[in-house]
């Protein structure tokens, strides 16, 4: 039976605050602070466990090889000899944000009736531009069944593709045919647009999507300039519900009209700027919550603690739930380590609609498997990393050995 599965990125042992992400305000603000990789990974695993307990199928992806010596070799250097900025890029743990791993089109939407996944090229940011090869390696193992999946290499540069963070899907039910919404951008103030329309159009063609059920929407310049470097910082969709900030889209009214025409049962939940400013929405990651359907059929938001701590955001959420809006439940989690680098609950997961039986079971979470991962993380992940530690060979060895141990623990030695 096909269902939605959230695949979360396990936070890697090299998680640090090197401030590499232009336009990501949290990343810039926390540059130079000391990170806590062990706590970060345990926070993410706690969210996975809670979603499992809520009856939501859960998977995971492993951290990538860090430091990325192969990438540095392509640049004619080594971990030992690289300039500090290059070394920091080679040590980034940003693959933890699995929403950028790929764009996913479920079987119900595609011409050949298979689920299609295109790995994101992430070419705009150097620290993310070398993720795709390691991500593609995992996708081809996890979704290897050719009768059910087609896994594609990235759209070529220079067309920037940031994966599911700029893609939404609206439908009557997860396994019903959907409307796929690709959100692209232009430059927003001093910040680059990371998702190019050409990349979105290429993915739609590669996945065999019907033009009548495909929508291309432009993110507003105001949202990008305010720090919404991905669409999922200002809008998220799940089944019939589109949850969005008033200032998320450049041509809001036209987009809403198009969506209503294609899916008459759509429920658009728009948060007015007069009640929650773009600044508050972005700092709290209100829209980077996971919008999920519980086994009861009710919609819920899985939120970061910062949403509850932002008065305007929590006031709006409480009023919505009290007013019998389509979102019925609010679940709050401590994800401070991820949030401090600019990634909330939705950043940490990639949604795939599929029959779990068709997926390599090594990537599917169970309570027992999470127990084992947590124990390994508590034993091997660094407790803290300061930026100056990135030049320490002992840290590189720790990161390599911890990841190899995780691969072995999960029976995925081919990824070590």
Which descriptors apply to this entry?
alpha/beta, 416 residues, three-stranded mixed β-sheet, L-arginine/glycine Amidinotransferase, Chain A, 15 helices, globular
Describe this structure as you would to a colleague.
The structure is a single chain. With 416 residues, this protein is an alpha/beta fold. It has one domain (3-415): Succinylarginine dihydrolase (L-arginine/glycine Amidinotransferase, Chain A), CATH 3.75.10.20. 33% of the residues lie in helices and 19% in strands. The protein has a 3-stranded mixed sheet with strand order 2-1-15, covered by helices on one side. β12 and β13 (299-304) form a beta hairpin. α2 (37-53) runs antiparallel to α14 (367-380). The protein starts with a strand and ends in a 7-residue tail after the last helix. The mean pLDDT is 95.
Q: Any chance you could write out the topology, listing elements then pairs?
A:
Blueprint: E1 3-9, H1 25-29, H2 37-53, E2 58-61, H3 69-74, H4 84-91, E3 102-105, E4 115-119, H5 126-129, H6 132-142, E5 149-152, E6 167-171, E7 178-184, H7 197-206, E8 214-218, H8 221-225, E9 235-238, E10 241-245, H9 252-262, E11 267-271, H10 278-284, E12 290-293, E13 299-304, H11 305-309, H12 311-322, E14 327-333, H13 336-339, E15 349-354, H14 367-380, H15 393-409
Parallel strand pairs: 1-2, 4-5, 7-8, 10-11, 13-14
Antiparallel strand pairs: 1-15, 3-4, 6-7, 9-10, 12-13
Helix pairs in contact: 2-14, 14-15
Number of domains: 1
Q: Which CATH C-level class is it?
A: Alpha Beta
Instruction: Give the overall pLDDT as a whole number.
Output: 95
Q: What percentage of amino acids are in beta strands?
A: 15-25%
Number of strands: 15
The DSSP helix count reads: 15
CATH superfamily: Succinylarginine dihydrolase
- Per the CATH scheme, the topology name is L-arginine/glycine Amidinotransferase, Chain A
Q: Helix amount, in percent? A: 25-40%
Cα-atom radius of gyration: 20 Å
Main beta-sheet strand count, sense and barrel state: 3 strands, mixed
**Given the C-alpha coordinates, what overall shape results?**
globular
Question: Order of strands across the biggest sheet?
Answer: 2-1-15
- Output the structural class: alpha/beta
Order of helices and strands: EHHEHHEEHHEEEHEHEEHEHEEHHEHEHH
- Named at the architecture level, the CATH assignment is 5-stranded Propeller
